[in-house]
Design a protein that fits this description.
single chain; alpha/beta; seven-stranded mixed beta sheet; six-stranded mixed beta sheet
Length: about 475
């Protein structure tokens, strides 16, 4: 039993102003494995005060100075990679292979990318007789989810620190342990006091207190669209910047000339990764009518062959979902799909055989799904995929566009040119062509109700910067200057 008794404010570990704690439950065993303090509004105030005070000097550091701190942070993450993987597996159930490659690997890679970016990024630019300087947004409230917990934290914190902002982090109350590990690393690298602060707690208390705080300049949030709407409403009172990475219901369009077996296999694997708890998952598979029944068979076989079980077992491909509430939510969606007339071809509401304990959901495939069914419209956030037939490319485009969301998607075709042409017509922030991998230097974010703003790479850095234009006498020389 791990007991974190303090929170991290102004460069030091200190007790919370309150006495309540949050229990962390292992979703594979249903046992409480840790407790952390449930921070209060008073704690939020103290953290923001510290961040505001630190901003005065941190915002004036050079890019080289900030790069040195981020490099030390990167090295610390590398040194504790195995611990990160084990910790995320324990607190949210990600299979060990995914925890090693993704849950630990992505934050390490993202931090390294900002170390490299600060070597070349220009924080000043001459445009005619104007000098445009890119300055930090200020104090940033980073509010992060539980599905890729440390990756989502680092995508915000590393970019904000690189920009010269100070940060108050509220991690998900479901998975706060990895945030403590990050704070421990930060505490050892000499980062000035107040530049990074950790206030764990629930969204209704800590999250809302940060969003409405007058000394918070920006909120960077990843989570549900419902919560994102609430944040936008609250933040409007102080006109602070809000960057939102929200839900998704991404379409995977398999064009008639695609390698069907490969495309279906990749599509099912994409949805089952991280037990389906991925906002970019391609949960709507659109298949040409003539190939549809074969695709249904392939999807069924892929789902039924996936190894479900103990996430600490290296052979496991699908672990539990993160909580009892999430398990019940996903099973309710499966029941709803059955009730609405979709054909269940794999999985179902019953727990997987031989797993009476743990928050497990069977990999589930639905066929004969119409585009307006609930399971085709709402984000399920579990290992559930729906197959929808189409007659031609125009219908495929219309079905894919029939969504409130626009975060990600995929197109498969024998012709890359044809796939790219189709992808250009999709209203979504990211499209994978023929199963291409994620590029951590490319912008990540959504259209429509999938949010606004971008993370990763240059676009992620600039999300935390604001331009100031200095109008100079016309005789001043033109050109560009570095940081």
């Amino acid at each position: 039993m791990l007991e974190h008794k303090d929170i991290y404010i102004d460069g030091a570990w200190r007790p919370s102003a309150g006495e309540e704690v949050t229990e962390v439950v292992n979703p594979a065993t249903e046992q409480v494995i840790a407790t952390v303090p449930a921070s209060t509004v008073k704690d939020v105030d103290a953290a923001v005060v510290a961040a505001r005070a630190a901003l005065r000097t941190w915002s004036r550091t050079t890019a080289a100075e900030r790069r040195a701190f981020l490099d030390r942070l990167h090295q610390g993450l590398v040194q504790r990679a195995d611990e990160i993987a084990a910790l995320v597996t324990a607190e949210m159930g990600a299979p060990r292979q995914i925890s090693t490659q993704v849950q630990a690997g992505l934050p390490i890679a993202v931090t390294a990318s900002y170390v490299r970016l600060l070597e070349t990024y220009e924080f000043e630019e001459r445009i005619g007789n104007s000098l445009v300087v890119k300055e930090p947004m200020g104090v940033v409230a980073a509010i992060t989810p539980w599905n890729y917990p440390l990756h989502q934290i680092v995508a915000k914190v590393a970019a904000a620190l690189a920009a010269g902002c100070t940060v108050v982090l509220k991690p998900s109350e479901v998975t706060p342990l990895n945030a403590y590990l990050l704070a421990q690393i930060i505490d050892t690298i000499g980062l000035p006091a107040g530049v990074f602060n950790l206030v764990p707690g629930i969204g209704a208390v800590v999250g809302e207190a940060l969003v409405v705080h007058p000394d918070v300049d920006m909120v960077s949030f990843t989570g549900s669209t419902r919560a994102g709407k609430r944040i936008g409403e609250l933040a409007a009172a102080t006109i602070k910047k809000v960057a939102l990475e929200l839900g998704g219901k991404s379409a995977n369009i398999i064009l008639p000339d695609a390698d069907l077996e490969s495309a279906v296999r990749d599509g099912v694997a994409n949805v089952l990764r991280n037990s389906g708890q991925t906002c970019t998952a391609w949960t709507r598979m659109l298949v040409y009518r003539d190939s549809y029944e074969r695709a249904v068979e392939l999807a069924r076989d892929a789902a039924e062959s996936a190894a479900v079980g103990d996430p600490t077992d290296e052979r496991t491909q699908v672990g539990p979902v993160a909580s009892a509430a999430q398990r019940d939510r996903v099973r309710d969606y499966i029941a709803d799909g059955i009730n609405q007339g979709a054909r269940l071809v794999a999985g179902g509401v019953e727990p997987p055989a031989g797993l009476p304990t743990g928050y497990y959901v069977r990999p589930t495939v639905f066929a004969d799904v119409t585009e307006n069914m609930t399971i085709a419209q709402e984000e399920i956030f579990g290992p559930v995929i729906v197959l929808i037939p189409y007659e031609d490319e125009e219908e495929a485009l219309r079905i894919a566009s029939n969504s409130l969301y626009g975060l990600s998607g995929a197109v498969f075709s024998a012709s890359e040119e044809r796939a790219v042409a189709f992808a250009r017509r999709l209203d979504t922030g990211m499209v994978h062509i023929n199963g291409a991998r994620l590029n951590l230097l490319a912008p990540f974010g959504g259209y429509k109700q999938s949010g606004n703003g971008r993370e990763l790479g240059v676009y992620g850095l600039e999300e935390f910067l604001q331009p100031k234009s200095l109008q100079l006498p016309a005789s001043a020389s033109s050109g560009r200057t570095g940081p």
